[in-house]
Specification:
Elements (H helix, E strand, L loop, with lengths): L7 H9 L14 H9 L16 H9 L5 H18 L9 H4 L4 H19 L1 E3 L2 E2 H6 L9 H11 L12 H4 L5 H9 L2 E3 L6 E3 L2 H10 L2 H33 L11
Antiparallel strand pairs: 1-2, 3-4
Protein name: Ankyrin-3
Amino acid sequence: MAVYHCDLRMTVILMQNGANMHCIDMHRCSPLDVMMFLCTAHDVKTLSLRQEDCCREFRKLIAKGETVKVEDLLPTAKALFKFDILKNVKSSALFQKWFTKAIPRDLHQYLNDCVSEIKSMKSATIDENFSMYNFIMEDKNSDLSGSDCSEKVLECIFRHPTTIRFPIYCDAIIPKLEKDSLQQKLCEYKIYTTNQIEEIDLVNDVVAHLVQYLPKFDIFNLISAYSDGERTCQKKRKHSASILVKGDALPKNVKRKRH
């Protein structure tokens, strides 16, 4: 029903709490079937789904109602994909040919992006035999949680440039991080002024207040902003230094005077 009503919030809650996207209702339809019919409700006859007859009753329901636009369903469908692939990256029904041929292009690209990011998380090593993917999938109360682990996870994330900081599954990582680790990481950064590229240390008391009142996602975004600012200013410094070196250099045909 959450998928049928394009209810993104409820879909995410259900998937985060272990809902099975392959279970079927009284019409023998799974959430995946519902999503597929909604995506192609404007031309049901062209569907090439496996076991179409099992969903005949649901087709009748769709035919009686208003057509759902694909763009309205996309956020809910993406949430459905995102969590199922995370848990079943090798065996999800989403990878079957009959499905990938039928879904809209945007969803097909998103499916590929999810798989690519999961592969990156599996290769991103936090500790020996422990990857970013393990961190997400481990129970919150396991031995692999806590401040020490959170610090290593943050170090792993910010070793990468902005474009590959796990943008799809970031919201699955951040809630598992400890606030103490986020505070410590935030204290490592400086504010860089624009004109003269000067450094200003963040005041620890201010950081403590920020961490106290801001949610984890906002603290993480602050760290990202300061990290990106640091990278930018370091590049500017290198560029300025290279200009100075070139400016000090004499032409080849000019010899320095000896005193």
